[in-house]
Give the backbone structure.
Amino acid sequence: QENNLLPHFTAGENMIISQLIKGINEANAKQNVLNLMSLLNLEDSLFEEKVFKLSGGQRQRVSFIRAISAPFQALFADEPTGNLDATTARILFQILTDQLNANGQTGIIVTHDLKLALEYGTRICPIEAVYEKGRIIGNIHDQNNIVKIGDSWIKKDGTKVNNAYDYLHNY
């Protein structure tokens, strides 16, 4: 849930670093980032800003761009839309979904936003929170997972989930 941006770098340096590590030249890396910034309603001038001057939502979008701009096989994200308004969150999920589908990549996303999960997810694994020995533990039970097939959500035993939002809301 932290953005883990490098505090002594500009927003742009933070966003291109993952591409540079993967061997993408700086000019191409910057252009990739500027394209993504535009999609996420970030002004080009933000590229040169120090990260401590950014709002929480800007930091989250910068972190997201850093994560998705370099080639990857699997992306793990914990609440990538937590500091974003609903419209920007939808844009972010659409960009992520488009990239995953276009490149045959996998995304494992943790979110509390059931509407986003149901709209953009293909498999949902609800986490059951239990209090055990003074700690909260999260359990995932395979039989509770649901998979999207066409426009329907299906449980492991093959039964259709009539109202997936209500089904997930119970966890």
